[in-house]
């Protein structure tokens, strides 16, 4: 197997800011572990961006009705990377309008890569990425200390669920 890819899932203002409805209270604690991992691995940084209203289908319509604060253009500063890790996106970002970043990641990594997942939120975009990637044949390691959930309790629950998928997904 080739060198693993470090994936930093959605380190954006919308998920880091304390005053954001989606801000993770754990975000500040994951910055140093992410930076340490990035120093040793080739790195991909992802961003969640909203789809244009005209392109939303099914449950995404209801989703944006429930979260109108996020119904902004993808270029809105709310979706910018946080300064603490923005420099990790040397080659740009992998953007997706879905929680899970697979298959957008596969376009960069190729099929069945080894992924090291970090980022936010453990209980949304990280778990959605991990499950889809593993289902497609990727080997996934989720670094618990480098992920932040919507709450510490939801973080732990998501880690527990992902641990059920061993050996395809390993929580470390």
From TrEMBL:
Keyword field: Hydrolase
InterPro entries (alphabetical): Isochorismatase-like_dom, Isochorismatase-like_hydrls, Isochorismatase-like_sf
Tagged with keyword Cell cycle: no
GO MF terms held by the record: hydrolase activity
rRNA-binding keyword on record: no
Residues in Isochorismatase-like domain copies: 5-166
Pfam families associated with the record: Isochorismatase
PANTHER family, sorted: PEROXYUREIDOACRYLATE/UREIDOACRYLATE AMIDOHYDROLASE-RELATED
UniProt name for this protein: Cysteine hydrolase
Source organism: Aeromicrobium duanguangcaii
Lineage: Bacteria, Bacillati, Actinomycetota, Actinomycetes, Propionibacteriales
């Amino acid at each position: 197997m080739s060198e693993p890819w470090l994936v930093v899932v959605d380190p954006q203002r919308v998920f880091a800011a304390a005053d954001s409805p989606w801000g993770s209270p754990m975000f500040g604690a994951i910055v140093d572990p992410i930076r340490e991992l990035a120093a040793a691995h080739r790195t991909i940084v992802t961003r969640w961006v909203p789809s244009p209203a005209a392109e939303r289908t099914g449950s995404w319509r209801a989703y944006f009705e429930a979260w109108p604060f996020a119904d902004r253009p993808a270029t809105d500063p709310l979706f910018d990377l946080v300064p603490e890790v923005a420099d990790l996106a040397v080659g740009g970002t992998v953007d997706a309008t879905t929680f899970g970043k697979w298959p957008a990641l596969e376009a960069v990594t190729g099929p069945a890569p080894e992924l090291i997942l970090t980022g936010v939120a453990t209980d949304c975009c990280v778990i959605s990425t991990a499950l889809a990637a593993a289902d497609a044949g990727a080997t996934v390691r989720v670094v618990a200390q480098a992920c932040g959930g919507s709450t510490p309790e939801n973080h732990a629950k998501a880690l527990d669920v992902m641990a059920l998928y061993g050996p395809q997904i390993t929580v470390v």
